[in-house]
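Model it.
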Amino acid sequence: MLILSAVTACGARTPQGTDSLDLSKPGSFEFGGTDVKVEFDSGFDETIVGADGSTVERKALYSDGLLTFTAYDTNRDGKDDLWFQYDDELHLKVEMRDTNGDGKPDRLIYYDKDEKVIREETR
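Modeled.
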């Protein structure tokens, strides 16, 4: 069971990655070396608290009222390390993971409209 708490705007605009995004105003970013580009008109930061008290930081980005992208700091080191991009129908489009701790995605998994894996890349 997850409990949501501490919803706040945060950060400053950055052209690459999600760690310092200013979610209080529209913006865009891309991940260098990938074909993932995200534009958003609103967003928020939240802390997800598990039943055992563990926490995960999450950013949610929206465009025209639809969820388009989420970013997570799963190991609580202050850097996002798991990202999901969604299409206009809220289907998972791309999953990205930072497996070596450098704050950049090094594993990308692309999905079709049925959310079946169509391609995987390791960098």
